Sequence to fold (175 residues):
Amino acid sequence: MKKFLMAFLILVSSMTVVRASEDGVNIYAEPRTPPSRPIYSYTGKKVKLTDFSGDFLVVVFWSRYCAPCLRELDNLARYQQIVINDGIKVILVSPDTEWNNVDEMKKMLKKYHAGDLEAYTDINGQLASDFGIFTSPNTVLINKKGEEIGRLRGAAEWDSDEVVEYIYKIKAQHN
Fold:
């Protein structure tokens, strides 16, 4: 099963990068309540997405075996620096089964220039599964009330002017 999963992830990771634009993002007509399953910080602290209420969340579900995920990490880090003072928070969520320990994940994020991003693990990928997410990268947008308002499937050029402006627009319309 693990070999099948690895082959599937490699196949999915060969997909091209999409631009987060009005065509690439699925914004819902009505906000949705996100799943309440916890994720875990580097220190092992259990948190839920609702614990981030008050911030507009860009929750990126990623995998260490996903080439587009790895390519977008530095973009995400630059994006977070651009929007850090504007109530937008980027968090990374990956399956805990991909890591031997948190230091391994920290080292990989640092290697890809994303060491300053908040990263969490998802026990057996259960939160991703609750969201119906089975490929990476997949981004969930959550307004400051803690409601899921949309998604982006695939990688994006997060630090591009077009994407930054578009996410600000979504935040303004759905916060």
The radius of gyration is 15 Å. Helices lie at 2-13, 67-83, 102-111, 126-131, 161-174.
